[in-house]
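Inverse folding, one chain.
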């Protein structure tokens, strides 16, 4: 049972262990991490060497994959499917409230909600923009740019009026929505959008504000009705927020003006961008079937005009994050909330609400 090992066997075992340890030491010496090198110049050299090795390996993998695809096509076989990179967006957790295109209940609710009269063009949007009681220097400049973005928008000074009195005034003057720009430490930090006459009220956190004058090579918008683009408002809550944003803009875009207003939702952050299309004519030299430049009778090269379209940003540029959605108009004490963001909801990076 417990017989002694032979001397040769024990020496062989010890020899194998020694060779394994030596291999480990050799690997550790060859794979020196930059963080373990104290000298700055040597550390940067090690980092550059590792970076170059990774680049070479990546290039080899790409060449091998291209060769395998080419070989499969020559043999008449189907090439291996292309790998899709795993991102937070495509690894999103399944949500029961995602709107499906055949959801009859959703479309029936659209006909009876607070925005149906505007989106059916029975009423034209009329927006009242105001500020909080303590205004700042960047607040008015941001509001002046909002006035150029949203058609049929009017600015009124807040003064010392309570928000409920402003809602009454706006209802009497037949406004369809109120936008309140809140500022903190001389910087706009929140937007309050109130639908009239029956709500709802959406409270957004405002961040990453860049005004038109700070955007390089910015364009100046015209007074044409803009085209509205809404991306990734897929859940029930996102659908409702999307319709609230739609109700701020007229539903008859003038495409001659080439203005585009975009609200792009990604990971529950709503990115706002304002662009205009620019069409430019560029000359490109014609070439014949052999690839040589085509020339006329005089020997001059023939130029061909080509129309190229590009986007020019008009500004402003900012990011919104939904904080709460309240039933009815603004009421801090007795208001009922449809949805309120709480820290306990952020249990996973792959969970989104809009």
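Residues assigned per position:
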């Amino acid at each position: 049972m417990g017989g002694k090992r032979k001397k040769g066997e024990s020496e062989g075992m010890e020899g194998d262990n020694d060779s394994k340890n030596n291999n480990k030491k050799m690997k550790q010496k060859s794979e020196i991490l930059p963080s373990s090198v104290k000298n700055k110049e040597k550390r940067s050299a090690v980092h550059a060497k590792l970076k170059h090795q990774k680049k070479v390996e990546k290039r080899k993998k790409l060449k091998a994959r291209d060769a395998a695809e080419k070989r499969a096509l020559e043999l008449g076989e189907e090439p291996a499917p292309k790998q899709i990179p795993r991102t937070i967006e495509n690894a999103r957790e399944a949500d029961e409230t995602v709107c499906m295109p055949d959801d009859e209940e959703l479309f029936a609710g659209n006909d009876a909600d607070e925005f149906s009269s505007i989106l059916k063009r029975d009423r034209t949007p009329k927006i009242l923009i105001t500020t909080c009681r303590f205004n700042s220097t960047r607040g008015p400049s941001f509001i002046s740019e909002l006035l150029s973005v949203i058609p049929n928008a009017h600015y009124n000074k807040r003064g010392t009026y309570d928000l409920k009195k402003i809602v009454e005034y706006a209802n009497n003057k037949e406004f369809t929505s109120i936008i309140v720009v809140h500022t903190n430490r001389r910087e706009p930090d929140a937007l309050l959008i109130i639908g009239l006459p029956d709500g709802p009220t959406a409270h957004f956190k405002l961040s990453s504000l860049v005004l038109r004058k700070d955007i390089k090579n910015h364009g100046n918008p015209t007074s044409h009705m803009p085209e509205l683009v809404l991306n990734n408002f897929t859940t029930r809550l996102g659908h409702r927020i999307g319709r609230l944003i739609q109700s701020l803009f007229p539903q008859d875009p003038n495409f001659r003006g080439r203005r585009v207003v975009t609200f792009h939702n990604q990971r529950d952050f709503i990115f706002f961008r304002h662009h205009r299309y620019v069409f430019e004519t560029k000359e490109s030299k014609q070439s014949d079937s052999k690839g040589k430049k085509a020339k006329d009778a005089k020997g001059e090269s023939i130029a061909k005009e080509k129309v190229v379209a590009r986007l020019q940003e008009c500004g402003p540029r900012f990011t919104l994050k939904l904080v709460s959605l309240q039933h009815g108009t603004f009421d801090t004490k007795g208001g009922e909330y449809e949805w309120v963001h709480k820290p306990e909801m952020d249990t996973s990076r792959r969970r989104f609400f809009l």
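DSSP finds seven helices and eleven strands in the chain. The radius of gyration is 31 Å.
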